[in-house]
Amino acid sequence: MTLARRTALLFSLGGLLASCRDRGQDCPECGTVVIAATGEPSTLIPPLVSETVARDVSDQIYERLAYLSSGASPVDQNAYRPGLAERWERIDSLNWRFRLRSDARWQDGRPVRAEDVVFSFDVFSDSTLASGAQSYLAGKVRATAEDSMTVRVGFTERSPEQLYDATYHVRILPKHVWDSIPRQRWEADTSLSHLIGSGPYRIQNWSRGSFLTLSADTAWAGDKPSIRRAIWRFAPDPDAALNLLLAHQADLMETVGSKERAARVAHDSSFQLISYPAGVYGFLAFNVAEGKGRPHPQLGNRELRQALAQVVDRRTLATALFGEGTKPPPGPMSQLLWIWDDGIRQLPFDTAQAGERIRRIKASQPLRSIDILVPSTSATRRQLAVAIQEAWRRIGVPATVTTVEFPVFQERLAKGRFDSYIGAYLDEPSPRGLRDQWTREGWAALNYGHYGNPVFDSLLRAASLEESAGRARGLWREAMDTLNTDVPAIFLYSLANVAAVSRRLSNLKMDPYSWASGLREWKVDPDERRKP
Description:
Number of strands: 18
CATH architecture of the largest domain: Roll
Strand order of the largest sheet: 8-9-10-1-11-16-12-15-13-14
Number of helices: 17
Largest sheet: 10 strands, mixed
Distance between the termini: 28 Å
Shape: globular
Strand content: 15-25%
Radius of gyration: 25 Å
Helix content: 25-40%
CATH superfamily of the largest domain: Dipeptide-binding Protein, Domain 3
Structural class: alpha+beta
CATH class of the largest domain: Alpha Beta
């Protein structure tokens, strides 16, 4: 984009936002919100979406059959609200029936039909597209049309999360748009005319490398959105996005990042900072069984891992690096995950007890230095590593910190070439991802430290099969008690995001799994003035 075009865009957006303050409630622009985003979507076609910005935009265009309430258990059938389906019922232990809304329309005017839902389940299961839902759906879930408005979703196995799998992963696509296009060509498809959904917003324009505009769809049968236009401004990095915000060229930034950057926003009285939990938890994981079964010569010792955990003041460390709202988790989970329970047993921060454990260990064997591996792409992970290194030094355990490029970091994890590493995982509403992260089955997936405990694995399986949310919670708690006693990792932080929001916006309800999903319920106050 030329400098002249960039300048024109800045002035046009700035003028648009100013006009909302000066022309009253009747002006069309008064329902406009501008979002500063880090990065630009590579695609908005739902089965190909991987970036969070792409998800945020795509979720305004396409619908799910039903929606799980934020923070609710996926096994709680009462926690779902209608989406493209107006109602549903369980037929038997393997089948569900969904009745579509009679007023549902594609944004080209054609009605939504059961064949669109059947097509969409097939698309999300297709290895050609390799959607993130493929492993949950392919060979396990099948949709069939009972009539033009009724869909049966069948499963090959019983599971308390069937309703979750039938609704959370799949956004419904128009068959008449995509069926004639070979799926190997979808990734390269850039036609805006193909991005037709049944949701409350449609694409108005997309200036690649600069911004994307959504407008409220006039054919949408639901409550008419107060936000009539949403503009995503794309920035190459978080600092550039923050500069857009502070230059008053945007109303909102999903997360501002560090405490220092939040402080910059706080100095501008036209913005407010809103904290909300994020679906991320961070940890230091130990190489418990190098060689996929042979105990690590030092870190295979549970008492040593316990000592190394007890000397880390997780609460102080989390708050110092990430700010208020971030918490040390009671296990491998974000604050969003429904199994979070403050009653889960955890080793206390106790330097005296940690020191005594180390003295007992040293009496029987010498301790060599323990290395902490971190990627060079994260300054925060290095800060965590240095703080932990110092904590271990105070109880007589030498440690080093090794920083490597991210591809090397990933390669070393996959090959087990580390003593410990600092990582982070992103949750989805179901805790079943813990299977890949911390069980014996996960040795081929994300359990790089090769921790394995048959008791923990058994408890996790039992919790995953329990249909009662209350009983399942008890089993999850017992599983976490077992894991925390073994200390395959030190669970360091569960993040809280801090959003920067213009004071002209109100009624923001942020679902952290898709923070902009409530966009149509937001409101704009045209009389709220920005600070010059």
